[in-house]
Amino acid sequence: MPSTPIISDCQKHGAPAGEKCTIKATGGGAYKYADLFKEKLGICLDKEDEMDCLVAGSNFLLKAVHTEAFTYMDGQKEFVQIDHDDLYPYMLVNIGSGVSMIKVDGPGKFERVSGTNVGGGTFWGLGRLLTKCKSFDELLELSHRGNNRVIDMLVGDIYGGMDYTKIGLSSTTIASSFGKAISDNKELEDYKPEDISRSLLRMISNNIGQISYLNALRFGLKRIFFAGFFIRGHAYTMDTIAVAVHFWSKGEAKAMFLKHEGFLGALGSFMSYEKHGFLNLKVHQLVQQSPVDAYHGGDKIHDPPNGELNENRSIDCSICLS
Ligand SMILES: Nc1ncnc2c1ncn2[C@@H]1O[C@H](COP(=O)(O)OP(=O)(O)OP(=O)(O)O)[C@@H](O)[C@H]1O
Ligand SMILES: CC(C)(CO)[C@@H](O)C(=O)NCCC(=O)O
């Protein structure tokens, strides 16, 4: 479903009777649901460009939040200190239903250099069909318990258990995602949903990591930040993306993730109030749990990789209407 990140001041302050209530919105949802908002709530959506908002949100977070960016490898999360004077250029990869790859050169200066239609929607859509899962969380939970080697064809499966050392492929490298399904003489119901989900997650995350790195290489970008609602702080997703970037860059590049990964567009949309003359955008960090923590903390798989639950703070932004 296209996102509808919306931040409203009307709800808080109330629009004077008879006055039109307008709120900022971005993403496809700002178009798709505009009539519904008008009809049911009497609210007009003031549309902001999705890419503008993603970049504004990302730039803001990387500058304002000390522990926003982190690397993730072998179950270890390491925060990266961002030098504000050396932030640009960087690659922002937003993984929603589809994936956008954006080269960011400065505040408001960016180019969407690539993308892929194999993204979060593919994982959820294919996963739902193949496993009969009823929710995304269920599918993600399954992946945690699965073993992709049951379905994926590994280099070792092709080379009689051996590495293919000459071209740098270990026997455990996936040679062909879902490749075993061609020779197994098995039907869908013979596979465990856990294993299907794991293979699917690995295939998609790996592919995104690879395409992102190749695009970063194309533009000589050292840093790649991965964000979007698909990631959801899920250890295995981040690990697979990080391994893909590590593998393809031969260890030269590191994938970085954002703590507030799913809210870039919403944040950027909110920040555009400032652009339109609402000065005094005030930002401060609160010590309350954010919605991010709520779903990261409530479920074992989503536990922050090194138990830093208290590390996560919500960001409280407020605007003073002038
Ligand atoms: N609870 C959830 N329900 C559905 N999808 C979820 C959930 N949590 C994470 N996701 C993932 O997030 C994806 C959607 O992310 P998001 O809402 O950011 O994308 P979008 O705005 O629809 O996509 P795009 O950026 O391509 O327009 C889903 O396809 C799924 O992979
Ligand atoms: C179409 C958008 C930008 C909507 O958010 C997103 O879903 C996306 O980047 N899709 C990938 C499209 C492509 O570049 O192949």
Largest sheet: 7 strands, mixed
Mean pLDDT: 85
Main sheet: which strands, in order across?
5-4-12-11-6-7-8
Oligomer, anyone?
single chain
Unreliable stretches: 1-9, 285-312
- What is the N-to-C order of secondary-structure elements (H for helix, E for strand)? EHEHHEHEEEEEHHEHEHEHEHEHE
Describe it.
- The structure is a single chain.
- The chain has 322 residues and is of the alpha+beta class.
- It has a domain at 152-190.
- It has eleven helices and 14 strands.
- The protein has helices at residues 10-13, 28-32, 34-41, 50-64, 120-131, 136-145, 155-158, 193-218, 235-248, 264-275, 291-297, and strands at residues 6-7, 21-26, 43-48, 69-73, 76-79, 90-95, 99-106, 109-116, 153-154, 174-176, 224-227, 255-258, 281-285, 315-319.
- A seven-stranded mixed beta sheet has the order 5-4-12-11-6-7-8, with helices on both faces.
- The protein is globular.
- The two termini are 35 Å apart.
- Bound molecules: adenosine-5'-triphosphate (ATP) and pantothenoic acid (PAU).
- Adenosine-5'-triphosphate (ATP) binds at residues 1-3, 27-28, 96-98, 120-121, 123-124, 136-137, 228-230, 232.
- Pantothenoic acid (PAU) is lined by residues 28, 50, 96-100, 115-117.
Strand-helix topology:
Blueprint: E1 6-7, H1 10-13, E2 21-26, H2 28-32, H3 34-41, E3 43-48, H4 50-64, E4 69-73, E5 76-79, E6 90-95, E7 99-106, E8 109-116, H5 120-131, H6 136-145, E9 153-154, H7 155-158, E10 174-176, H8 193-218, E11 224-227, H9 235-248, E12 255-258, H10 264-275, E13 281-285, H11 291-297, E14 315-319
Parallel strand pairs: 2-3, 6-11, 11-12
Antiparallel strand pairs: 1-2, 4-5, 4-12, 6-7, 7-8, 9-10, 13-14
Helix pairs in contact: 4-10, 5-8, 6-8, 8-9
Bound molecules: adenosine-5'-triphosphate and pantothenoic acid.
The site of adenosine-5'-triphosphate has 18 residues, from α5 and α6.
